[in-house]
Amino acid sequence: MNLKELIISSGILEDYALGSASETDAKGVECLARCYPEIQEEIFLIQNSLQRYAEQYKVNPPEGLKEKIWLSIQNDTAPTAQSAKPHSKGASGNLTAIMVKHKKWIAAASVLFVFTGLLLYSLYLHSQLKETNNRFALLETESKLYQKELQAQKEAYTLVRSQFDFLLDPFTEKVVLRGTSIQPEALATVYWNKNSQEVYVAINNLPQPPEDKQFQLWALVDGRPFDAGLIEEVSALNVQKMKSFKDADAFAITLEKKGGSQVPTLEAMYVIGTI
Question: Are 191 and 177 contacting, i.e. CB atoms less than 8 angstroms apart?
Answer without folding.
Answer: no
